[in-house]
Design brief:
binds iron/sulfur cluster; alpha/beta; TIM Barrel; 3-stranded parallel sheet; 344 residues; 14 helices; 5-stranded mixed sheet; globular
């Protein structure tokens, strides 16, 4: 038995959206056999004293029996209970009149809703028509029921002018005042996301620092820490420290609809797969997890950030990154290249 706690986030049902920034990637929606939940917990039970089970990885409450599902997640977790966080399904909020009452019952006080600009742009980035109107409908329902919406917007070169209109839209809907009336704060923030998963396909249109609209800077997440790509490259020039991805007291595992297992360090691609619950022996898979002994992590430990910046970085680019995200982007460029070479 290991000392660490385990959190399992299992993609049992999928997601109604196909967001262009999704770091988890666009896997098909599958419906897992309901009995797989306890099989997955039992797979890890001999090794970990506390296991928290989440039946969703992509969209919370996407299955129609979300109430029973929440109870079941609580019931099968071992010496631990799942939490609600600030995540909920705007798809379900817009369709299921009972859902907002469920959110209240389980103590949700805030729900994050993601925008990519106004109607056409948001629909295109979420991957389905009607998404923007659903986000507005979800906002209304939440406020009417005493839950504060938290609007998040992903910004790039293409949508920056539309994102700049979102604070005005929030003012028109009087979201701040209405949330304060029930003792909660409406919040709005903007960022460009890490450059992994689907979001790395948007590298070419990643926003440049001079193009972040002035009026959005107060809303930009940790704006003081935002660097341009050329600044990141300069900072990494003599860095030979390697890449350290470590689990602390808690290990979080993302499990795909096909039972592939990943850490939640970055995206769920072949390079990062730890193993598969149906194919791998539990003791061996748990050894790879606890010893952090995977193909990607072995390469990461010996990779040199300075050399990767020289190889994959663009020293002329004003595209914005947080330094840690940029290191992750460089490492993923390297791992993808090595994986391609190895798979030839
Ligand atoms: S970002 Fe979230 S809602 Fe969008 S496709 Fe990914 S998992 Fe689904």
């Amino acid at each position: 038995m290991f000392n660490q706690s385990l959190i399992l986030a299992v993609d049992m049902y999928g997601c109604p959206n196909r967001c262009k920034h999704c770091w988890l990637g666009h896997a098909p929606n599958r419906s897992m056999d309901e009995a797989e939940d306890i099989r997955i917990v039992d797979y890890f039970r001999p090794f970990f004293p506390r296991i928290t089970y989440y039946s969703w990885l992509r969209e919370p409450d996407f299955c129609n029996h979300y109430r029973q599902r929440w109870e079941r997640d609580n019931q099968i977790s071992v010496n631990a209970k799942p939490e609600r966080y600030e995540l909920a399904s705007f798809w379900r909020l817009a369709r299921d009149p009972d859902y907002v009452y469920f959110l209240k019952e389980v103590g949700v006080k805030k729900v994050q809703l993601t925008f990519f600009g106004l109607e056409e742009m948001t629909d295109r980035y979420v991957g389905r028509r009607g998404a923007f109107q659903e986000l507005l409908r979800a906002t209304e329902l939440l406020v009417e029921n005493g839950i504060a919406p938290r609007w998040q917007a992903f910004i790039n070169e293409e949508n920056r002018h539309e994102v700049a209109q979102l604070p005005g839209l929030a003012d028109t809907l009087e979201l701040r005042e209405r949330c304060r009336a029930f003792g909660e704060e409406f919040t709005f923030f903007v960022h460009s996301g890490s450059c992994d998963g689907e979001n790395c396909r948007l590298y070419d249109i990643r926003i440049t620092k001079p193009h972040i609209p002035e009026e959005l800077r107060p809303y930009y997440l940790n704006y003081d820490e935002v660097m341009t790509e050329k600044e990141c490259c300069e900072q990494l020039k003599n860095d030979s420290s390697g890449f350290a991805y470590h689990n602390g007291d808690t290990i979080v595992l993302n499990i795909s609809g096909t039972f592939d297992v990943y850490f939640n360090f970055t995206h769920m691609t072949e390079e990062w797969r730890i193993g598969n619950l149906k194919k791998d022996d539990p003791a061996e898979l748990v050894r790879r997890i606890t010893e952090e002994d995977t193909w990607a992590l072995r390469l990461a430990r010996t990779a040199n950030p300075g050399q990767l910046a020289e190889r994959y970085g663009n020293t002329q680019s004003d595209r914005v990154f947080f330094p840690e995200d940029y290191r992750g982007y460089l490492l993923n460029c390297y791992l993808e290249e090595r994986w391609r070479e190895m798979s030839r």
